[in-house]
Amino acid sequence: MLERLLVTGAAGGVANLLRPRLVGVSKKFRLTDIRHFVSASDLDETMIGDLADSAFVDQLVQGCDGILHLGGVSTEQPFDEILPANIVGVYNIYRAAAKYDRPRVIFASSNHVTGAYRTQEIITPNDPFLPDSFYGASKVFGEAVAKVFFVKEGVESAIVRIGSCFEQPSDLRMMSTWFSPDDFAALIKSCFTVETLDCPTIFGVSNNARSFWRNTEISHLDWHSEARVEDLLGSMNEPNVSPEEVAAGLMDYHGGTWVKRPLGTG
Ligand code: 15L
User: Fold this and answer.
1) Residue 266 resides in a domain
2) Is-contact 96 52, C-beta < 8 A?
3) pLDDT in tens, 179-223
């Protein structure tokens, strides 16, 4: 068990899904976000601030033996809005990790680093980047930062290209991209307990029949997806696709409608 896990982006949707599922991973949790939020557990300590502020990030990372880096802009936006948290912020996290005892990092990358692949293609982490947005490009940068701090400074990371992490799918594309929050929490646990993590790149996706992604860098982890989106279909209907979603390219590309939108517009 970790002593203190730092969770960035703690006010966000994915953190809210994961936090209750991470009981037992760490004795204490240091939760941070740029927005104010309230935590429900007395195991939590909260720190509000900006990941682009390197002195603040130093304070965050000191005393933590694990980092779950979910923070940053999570949708497509003009580049100026993406730059502080997704470019400067990810660098600050890794720079501080290298400085303060090299805690392992789970880096929340995104499927949008390869969002412009067509849905007929099945890809692995070995295929080239093909981002669909400034947001996707910022995650490509984050992945490169994770790799360089592994190679040069020995900071181990799991680079997790999250698909669609929600309680259940809300559109037809998510029949391919859905990532069960239970699967994500189990992956995090296994990354913090494996003896040697190295720096694998992992598509964060459940065992969905129509997944676009195959993982090739997880054989050393005690993890495989326990969930399939199809198993939810007993309690919900398969989402429909509207003519507007078809026209917007929802089912044409891994990244769905992000590919056809003008750059910088969410
Ligand atoms: C992401 O990376 C986004 O942060 C999230 O909001 C979803 O859009 C997700 O990808 C997705 O592709 O479903």
Assistant:
1) no
2) no
3) 999 999 999 999 999 999 999 999 999 999 999 999 999 999 999
pLDDT in tens, 139-190: 999 999 999 999 999 999 999 999 999 999 999 999 999 999 999 999 999 9
User: 42 is written with which tokens?
Assistant: 């007395």
Q: Is the four-CA dihedral 7, 223, 14, 81 of positive or negative sign?
A: positive
Asked if 71 contacts 33 with a C-beta cutoff of 8 angstroms, the reply is yes
Global confidence as pTM:
0.97
Atom of ligand 1 nearest to the CA of 139: 2
Find the catalytic residue in 91, 117, 135, 253. Answer: 135
Cα of 99 to ligand 1 centre, how many Å?
31
- The CATH number covering residue 149 comes to 3.40.50.720
Tokens describing residue 138 = 């910022």
